[in-house]
Amino acid sequence: xxxxxxxxxxxxxxxxxxxxxxxxxxxxxxxxxxxxxxxxxxxxxxxxxxxxxxxxxxxxxxxxxxxxxxxxxxxxxxxxxxxxxxxxxxxxxxxxxxxxxxxxxxxxxxx
Amino acid sequence: xxxxxxxxxxxxxxxxxxxxxxxxxxxxxxxxxxxxxxxxxxxxxxxxxxxxxxxxxxxxxxxxxxxxxxxxxxxxxxxxxxxxxxxxxxxxxxxxxxxxxxxxxxxxxxxxxxxxxxxxxxxxxxxxxxxxxxxxxxxxxxxxxxxxxxxxxxxxxxxxxxxxxxxxxxxxxxxxxxxxxxxxxxxxxxxxxxxxxxxxxxxxxxxxxxxxxxxxxxxxxxxxxxxxxxxxxxxxxxxxxxxxxxxxxxxxxxxxxxxxxxxxxxxxxxxxxxxxxxxxxxxxxxxxxxxxxxxxxxxxxxxxxxxxxxxxxxxxxxxxxxxxxxxxxxxxxxxxxxxxxxxxxxxxxxxxxxxxxxxxxxxxxxxxxxxxxxxxxxxxxxxxxxxxxxxxxxxxxxxxxxxxxxxxxxxxxxxxxxxxxxxxxxxxxxxxxxxxxxxxxxxxxxxxxxxx
Lengths: 111, 452
Known about the structure:
The complex is a heterodimer of chains A (111) and B (452).
Chain A: E1 2-5, E2 10-17, E3 20-27, H1 30-39, H2 42-49, E4 57-62, E5 67-72, H3 93-97, E6 101-104
Antiparallel strand pairs in A: 1-6, 2-3, 3-5, 4-5
Chain B: E1 5-11, H1 20-26, E2 32-35, H2 40-52, H3 60-76, E3 79-82, H4 89-102, E4 109-114, H5 122-127, E5 148-153, H6 158-165, E6 170-173, H7 178-190, H8 197-210, E7 237-240, E8 246-249, H9 260-267, E9 277-278, E10 283-285, E11 290-295, E12 298-302, E13 305-307, E14 312-332, H10 336-353, E15 360-366, E16 384-393, H11 396-403, H12 409-412, E17 417-418, E18 428-439, E19 446-451
Parallel strand pairs in B: 1-2, 2-3, 3-6, 4-6
Antiparallel strand pairs in B: 1-7, 4-19, 5-14, 7-8, 8-12, 9-10, 10-13, 11-12, 14-16, 14-17, 14-18, 15-16
């Protein structure tokens, strides 16, 4: 097994809903989708974001888009115009998730 | 009936590219151009403008755009649907009529959709049983009712379609949904019934894909290095068919790209539960969306299933919730991060010594960890860092005092501090957002179409 970052087998976009952000994580292909379904769990995402996410993390599946949609509750310091954060709308949370390291077989080819 | 119907969105939010709508109209064939100008904060700003001047309270950018494009719009018979009316669609129409008269245009029909602005009738509505409890935490509106700045219902696409039926070429709305601006012309052109849930769902997805402008054509795309010619990025267009299928594309020769990956990223933008996306027109199941690349910069979207709409409209209320300010300093040279941390410590200590504490404060180190916290480690040596200090409080005088405590650090703190430009940060109003629901039977929308 070897470790690679999610950005080598998936792409992502994030946005805000009140004081929560969502990150849609989209696998590059079916094989990659199986890997992210297996390893990128809601608990793992919560740990990855550490102090950014004060609440829970929910995960929804969209197999038609090879996508996992994560809702990061209480992750924007109040959200919208109430937040004092530089990224008050979670615009960068997608890029942050792509930094996560995951395990893949040594012969796994990224596309 | 046109088929396919070509709809492009040239404005994802107030502040988006001012050239994009013009290019959509000039760089290739288009039947409808939609323009979204509203956000929650925008509505409160517009209410203030209207209170000061009854002939204001709408998106003035739209009127400037009309000066530039109205002649071409009439000549090419393009229809424009814009949520530019803010809290005063009538005044916005009058301003566009004035433009039409200056340009010597006659016979132009402009429709406005009203009824979304319920600020004035809020007390009556509450007396007749509307509760407006906070949609996320269930709190009653009475907690903030005396601080409410705006209250707008997200209306459905039907009154917009009605304005098209009445022959309007330009339609100005208040708080419509972003996807509804795109769904409306499809309802009008194809005669989709109000309970044809699958087609309404399809039109809603078409609108959702378009609503953030270039975010469907390569903007904000993860693999940004693959995107050609960002500088001349084309804004998205759908070619829509009466069976509910549509193709996402952009004008030939423009920059950016339309692929399954750029479109699917936009589909999941700001998404909650994918099986139940609620709009005033329909509930949509995003897990039914099928994407297929059918050519260069052409993605076919099909298979979309919808479910009956709910009995409620979403209401967007805004209220004044205190004040905030942020100031920045650039700290450079040896031990830049350590010096920045020291600067922050000094500012908060001095304010505390002067007797000032705040409801909330924040110290961020831009360039190191302001967006991603501890996800990536901070390098041992950094050349420079931007310190961003912020404070929030109900008392604006305290925020003003905070704003005076940043510049002194240039001369009375650690060395290598610069970049204090633009004067002391001033208190900004915090316009907080209060989402709620209202029974559809309590809201009456109206459509009027007039000719210049």
